[in-house]
């Protein structure tokens, strides 16, 4: 049975950054943050739009992607419940350079840009959180470049799943990953059929189990080290 999803306020108070704010700072954040529902296939953010919010996922799953000149969709990463993204673009004061699409019905939290910038000015713990966030994101993308350029599909699927278990970027993830084979395909750059083959191979290797409603990770370190 699926656990009830948190309210917006519960989500904000449970975040890593929310837990380090003072009561007065948190009260100001709670007063201005708002929630948005985005249906499956809808846009959370669009490329080229002005940056007005820092964005978090209360419940659901989104993919950050772009399109090549030929029209091919390229997925950079996924963000699950508990994750926040877009801080780099806000810090650079640039227009958004990618699309963010909901892979399933998704509840989104938005913090206005003015509040994000205010926290940068007044909260040293919030700045420390962002430093860690950017460092973890950099490590994630360096690993992804290596995976995409050097590794086969089976290994990409394994590393894609392992990358979801980053306690800083995705603090809400459980050992039962509620991702469909189609969603795994999107995030690892493989077709649904090819992702299914890879998952079956990883299941035979004892690294995961395909359960109803998701994928149960049995050996996280094995997924991180796996190479076909």
UniProtKB/TrEMBL annotation:
<keyword id="KW-0238">DNA-binding</keyword>
<protein>
    <submittedName>
        <fullName>Crp/Fnr family transcriptional regulator</fullName>
    </submittedName>
</protein>
<dbReference type="InterPro" id="IPR036388">
    <property type="entry name" value="WH-like_DNA-bd_sf"/>
</dbReference>
<dbReference type="Pfam" id="PF13545">
    <property type="entry name" value="HTH_Crp_2"/>
</dbReference>
<dbReference type="InterPro" id="IPR050397">
    <property type="entry name" value="Env_Response_Regulators"/>
</dbReference>
<keyword id="KW-0804">Transcription</keyword>
<dbReference type="InterPro" id="IPR000595">
    <property type="entry name" value="cNMP-bd_dom"/>
</dbReference>
<keyword id="KW-0805">Transcription regulation</keyword>
<dbReference type="InterPro" id="IPR012318">
    <property type="entry name" value="HTH_CRP"/>
</dbReference>
<dbReference type="InterPro" id="IPR014710">
    <property type="entry name" value="RmlC-like_jellyroll"/>
</dbReference>
<dbReference type="Pfam" id="PF00027">
    <property type="entry name" value="cNMP_binding"/>
</dbReference>
<dbReference type="InterPro" id="IPR018490">
    <property type="entry name" value="cNMP-bd_dom_sf"/>
</dbReference>
<feature type="domain" description="Cyclic nucleotide-binding">
    <location>
        <begin position="8"/>
        <end position="137"/>
    </location>
</feature>
<dbReference type="InterPro" id="IPR036390">
    <property type="entry name" value="WH_DNA-bd_sf"/>
</dbReference>
<feature type="domain" description="HTH crp-type">
    <location>
        <begin position="151"/>
        <end position="221"/>
    </location>
</feature>
